[in-house]
Amino acid sequence: MSKYEPLSQFLTASGQAEVPMSFSDIERVIAAPLPPAAFRHRAWWSNNPSNSAMTRAWVEAGYKSAQVDMKAHRLVFLRLGPAETSSGTPRPLRGGLIDRLRRTLGGTVTVAPGVDLTQPTGEVWEAEKQ
Questions:
Q1: How many alpha carbons fall within 13 Å on the CB side of residue 84?
Q2: What is the spatial distance between Cα 29 and Cα 79, in angstroms, rounded to a whole number?
Q3: What average pLDDT does range 41-70 have in this prediction?
C-alpha cells in the first residue's frame, strides 16, 4: 500500500465533484508530512501520473489537481469527466464493472419509467437493410 493510498480512498469516498484541501488537510489524511518539494515546486502538483506516487493516488481516485495556490498551501481536487484522462490513456477505475459504470456514466443517461432496455425497439436501422 502506497503512503498516499489514504488520499485516494478519501477522495473516492467523498463522491464530490470538487474537494478543496489545504496541504495540512492532505498531511492529516495521509498521516505523514508532505515532502519539501510539495511546498516549493508547483510542478509537484501536476496531473502527470508518472510524476509521483501521490499524483497516481488522486488520478486513480478519478480526480485532478486544480487551483493550486502555493502561497496559501491550498488546492482543489476536481473529479475527472468520463472521457477525461491526464496522460492520454484511460483513467484507472476501481471496483467491479457495475461500480465502474456507475462512476463513469452516473448522471449522464436517463431512462424513462416503464422503458425496458432489453426489448427490441421495432426500428430497422440503416445497417440492417442490406
A1: 14
A2: 18
A3: 88
CA end-to-end distance (rounded Å), the chain: 55
> Is the pLDDT score of 123 beyond 80?
no
Give the domain extent around 36: 5-105
CA–CA separation, 80 and 36 (whole Å): 27
Give the sheet arrangement for strand 18-22, strand by strand.
18-22, 74-79, 63-69
- Do the domain assignments include residue 21? yes
pTM: 0.62
CA 55/CA 77 separation, integer angstroms: 11
d(CA 77, CA 63): 6
Closest by alpha carbon to 56, among 2, 108, 118, 116?
2
pLDDT tens sequence across 23-55: 999 999 999 999 999 999 988 898 887 778 888
Q: Considering the domain boundaries, does residue 117 fall inside one?
A: no
* Amino acid in position 97: L
Task: Tell me how many domains the chain contains.
Answer: 1
Q: What is the pLDDT of residues 100-113, one digit of tens each?
A: 666 666 667 677 77
